[in-house]
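hey
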């Protein structure tokens, strides 16, 4: 008998009268697990899905490490109703011949016409695959600001890696931070215009396949949109009802460590555009994709912005054990339950 659960109802409501569908059609979504945790060690997509299902996950995200060879097994698992797909991450499946996670393989910010074409082609392919696996959301990156020689972001990163968290109190670091921002903003316009042009091109494909485009905040200092420019992005695209904001807790925390943003400010400013979450923790030394509750992220704060319609995806390093995955899920489920009580 066909499955018709929370994800199907979410998908059915995506393009109705409000930008994100009427709230009465939403059901609370169970916590999902991203294939980022296990796709690299599997040769068979069915066995990959089975490993995640055996841990008790009803929904999973197909991340950007799904090789073409894994697809038949994934489709077989879906045919057997083993699992539902909560979201899909561009590019999925990977282009033929690519055997490693490559979400930035082609960038919509690229000045090269060939790279822009390849980004459009493979993003459209991802949207079509999302429709095939009944995923309501496609998460994507929007490229970066490139420099002909050394990016100023590298100097900022090197300073922080050497000085640690104390760098935020150092006037030299603050001066370098301001100079980096200035250089990024000065060079941004031509890359920004490419992003807007390519997003506008792909929106009809999203609408055609009934999939939302979820733009993820990034950990890279020069990646787009710059964190304080997300609202500008949504204001500038013509069909923003088909595009929303995807929040990654680890990326936001890393940016706060650099003094570039405040984690909660980023969430608050984009709350009305939120489509879902990647959740993972960040260690004191700045390593992300760690077990929830073992690092420095204030998940009580994050939980204030999670609504029942939001997919919450555990996005972990493959180094984590099954026990760490299960403990993280329990942590998140208890946190969400306490907020809804």
């Amino acid at each position: 008998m066909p499955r018709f659960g929370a994800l199907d109802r979410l998908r059915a409501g995506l393009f109705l009268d409000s930008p994100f569908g009427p709230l009465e059609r939403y059901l609370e979504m169970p916590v999902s697990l991203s294939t980022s945790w296990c796709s690299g060690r599997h040769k068979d997509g069915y066995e990959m899905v089975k490993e995640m299902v055996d841990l008790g996950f009803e929904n999973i995200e197909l991340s950007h490490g799904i090789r073409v060879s894994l697809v038949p097994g994934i489709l077989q698992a879906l045919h057997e109703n083993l699992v539902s797909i909560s979201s899909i991450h561009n590019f999925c499946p990977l282009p033929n011949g690519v055997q490693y996670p490559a979400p930035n393989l082609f960038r919509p910010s690229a000045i090269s016409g060939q790279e822009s074409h390849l980004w459009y082609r493979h993003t459209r392919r991802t949207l079509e695959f999302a429709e095939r696996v009944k995923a309501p959301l496609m998460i994507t990156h929007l490229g970066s600001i490139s420099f002909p020689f050394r990016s100023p972001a590298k100097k900022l990163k090197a300073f922080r890696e050497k000085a640690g968290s104390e760098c935020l109190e150092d006037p030299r670091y603050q001066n370098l931070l301001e100079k980096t921002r200035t250089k990024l903003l000065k060079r941004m316009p031509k890359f920004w215009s490419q992003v807007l042009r390519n997003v506008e091109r792909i929106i009809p494909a999203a609408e055609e396949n009934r999939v939302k485009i979820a733009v993820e905040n990034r950990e890279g200092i020069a990646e787009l949109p710059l964190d304080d420019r997300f609202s500008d992005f949504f204001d500038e695209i013509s069909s923003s009802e088909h595009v929303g904001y995807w929040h990654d807790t680890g990326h936001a925390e890393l940016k706060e460590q650099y003094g570039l943003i405040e984690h909660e400010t980023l969430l608050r400013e984009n709350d009305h555009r939120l489509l879902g979450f990647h959740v993972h923790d960040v260690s004191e030394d700045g390593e992300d994709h760690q077990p929830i509750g073992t690092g420095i992220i204030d998940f009580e704060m994050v939980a204030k912005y999670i609504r029942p319609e939001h997919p919450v995806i555990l996005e972990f390093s493959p180094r984590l054990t099954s026990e760490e995955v299960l403990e993280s899920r329990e942590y998140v489920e208890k946190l969400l339950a306490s907020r809804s009580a």
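The radius of gyration is 19 Å. Residues 30-340 form a domain with the TIM Barrel fold (CATH 3.20.20.150).
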